[in-house]
Write a structure and sequence with these properties.
By secondary structure, this protein is α/β, with parallel strands linked by helices. It is 40% helix and 18% strand. The protein has a single domain, classed as Alpha-Beta Barrel (TIM Barrel), CATH 3.20.20.
Amino acid sequence: MKLAFSTLGCPDWNFNEIFATAKDFGFDGVEIRGVKNELYAPYIAEFSDRNIAATLEKLGRLGVAIPCVTSGICVRNYGLDPAADEGTVRETVEYAELAQKLGARYVRILGDIDVMPRGDVSDAAVAEAMKTLCDATKHTDTTLLIETNGAFAESERLARLVKKVDDGRLGILWDVHHPYRFFKEDLAKTAANIGEYVRYIHVKDSVMLPSGAVKYKMMGKGDLPLSQLIRILRANDYQGFISLEWVKRWCQELEAPGIVFVQYINYMKKVLA
């Protein structure tokens, strides 16, 4: 298994700082979710036509991969506004084409917008959206990943959705935190439901406060059963990335990335050993 971190955790770092840190700390990869003030990955300066060759040369020299380009695209409301749907398809194609240039296998798409499930979501609309997006990106060799997020953190529901789409270009990004925290799913149950579709993994730790709010913690400081996760992944011969999604871009009060990233990789190396 390989270790990565999402750039959500270091919103103030520039491109060079991100990848130098990944190299110095011993990470295998960096998941792109914006760099500094640019959240739309196709517009990141280092990925422009003028700069991408130099960027790829640098990443090769550092030995740090980009396994996943994580978009903010959400298809919860697909089918309600033709202009918005057209924009969703266009953005997905741009992300898939960028991922291919970067050698990234995956592009993350959201089926639901909020981390915690709120309100009704049409599974039929989301399935139709994913069918359309898979078809629109079939000229690339990237795989679209729908995340265990919001209503689709319920793993049985997400599994039904992926089976309904029935396209090998669609997989699942298992954010281990969300089914465990918001649907109280045992990790073994989640893995049994979606394991065959899981291509990439997000982790973060937390505790639930008496108020009902989630408080994020550094790995091993909350109650996420990481040792159980590793046993499950080994039993299923998972060889992909486990990426720390430290959501500092959205929660500035969280600990600094220089502290969190080194704690994460040291903790994970011990768990993996």
